[in-house]
Amino acid sequence: MNQEIIVSGVVLDEHFRLTLVEVCQLCDVSAETVIELVNEGVVEIQGGEPQDWRFDAVAFQRLKAALRLERDLGVNPAGAALALDLLEELQMLRR
After folding, report:
1. Cβ burial, residue 75 (10 Å; 0-12/13-18/19+)
2. What's the CATH number for 20-94?
3. Whether pLDDT at 74 is above 90
């Protein structure tokens, strides 16, 4: 039995920048959800107003991880920010 597996992804490089609209489309979430995560400190963005925000590769990956924590474990935005910070600190200590 042959099963077809479809894999999708986004190529990230040092010039990677997404707008709020693009992030919402790629992550299938509302702008309000992303704004709440930014306000909780989950990600650092470039730009002042939400329509001017730009998300680099690191911010995009952290945002996706926070959304998974919320979806899979029911973690709130503040908890997602704390969990991601602790995971990054643990990775640094292991290096």
Report:
1. middle
2. 1.10.1660.10
3. yes
